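Feature request, filed as a ticket because there's no other form

It would be nice if the structure record came with a short human-readable summary line next to the tokens. Right now we just get the raw output. Example of a typical job, pasted below so the devs can see what we mean:
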Amino acid sequence: MGLPLLLLLLLLPALLPARCCEPPAGSGGAVRALSARLLGLARDPERDPDPAVYLALRLAREHHPRLERRYLERLQDNFQHPYGRSLQGYGRSRWDAERGMSAEEPPHTGRLALYLLGLQASCPPVSPHRSLVTWLKYYLEEEWTGSQQRGHPVTSYYQYGLGVLALCVHRKRVRDPVVQRLLTAQQHGKLGHGGNTVDTEAVLALAFTCLERRRLVGTELAAKLRLAAHEASRNMAKAQGPDGIIGNIYSTPWALQVFLATGECQTEPAFGQAMAALLENLEAFGTAATMAQVLPVLHGHSYLDIASRHCGEEPDTLTPLDMEPLPEVPGNKTVQLVVECPLPWCYDLRLYDRLVPVPAAASLLDVLQAAAALDPREFRFQTQDTPQGPFLTQVLGLEARQEKRNYWQILSAPSTPLQMGIAEYTPPDGATVILRLSEW
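Raw output as currently delivered:
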């Protein structure tokens, strides 16, 4: 790409008519109510503190300083034990990444990264203990080594990217080869499938934009990162469906963070369409984790804004709102549960097909648990906990693996992909749900 074309690409947002990067007028009440519900969940001492929840509270327009300080204290208590010691005290050399992770404990790259972002978002910012930064750098070295040896990180490129973003926000340098590995993964389509691809590419674009703006990499690599971030933004726009959703409803907020961080929210029509889709589907964000995911963009912020926040007078005007318990739905329903495994993984396409009786209010996760209870020899499954809720990883002993480039796709028959998680989706009576091992 020639220099004039590159300059035109980077200056294009400034030359086109600007659009507002804020949510549309009239949406403030719904957004404020969602923030109040999240604050209500955050004050519950029975819930484990989540750094993503704290980030969402800090990036809101209105605040409750006392409850936010208390939540930060709970987070600090939660992270002090596992990370309040040096790597040497843990029985490892500082950089023994060439041996790979121990089997006992995988890295917690993403969670530690979100915690470091949360510390920077507090007012005044809390300087992290040096051991926290050291641990995160160690985890990134493990991720980098894993991607070299296995072709993928020990955790995921999503967590790997969050780690780089957190260190960048704290103005900590990352070795160029660690960054280059993320760039290579994006360029070679190794980031995942469906909504997971949108999530991961968005996190990488935020990290790339931060590194380039803060001049934490060399000039040549910075130019590559700038182009990669703009390519990610274009990919987000291409992935948008006719309903305005990008990937799925839960990956759409990540796509909007990219438009906000790169400034392309001013010129990209996909931004306004996706924002409208979120506002039309706020009922999908019913858990603390999903509320925390959507609220920053509803307040017009990306995680990159943490790097340039200025502490000032914060309006103490947000009142916690307790969640009303869901009304009980009487009666029962029956859901047809189908498991499909096409070639090349299986010779028989349909491995399981059975009617599963469940209570009328049962979620898809409840349906899976009921099927397993009916006959554990015929049906079994496993999930992995994620910030967005349980993620289906194994069905009938068949595990979806990143290195095999496959995943368990969930469809409403005959072929409609679900836009909600298995714990949020409530199949109607008589529905047919297909779990299909698919390639990405």
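Something like this underneath would help us a lot:
The beta strands are 332-340, 350-359, 381-386, 389-395, 398-399, 406-412, 416-417, 432-439.
DSSP finds 14 helices and eight strands in the chain.
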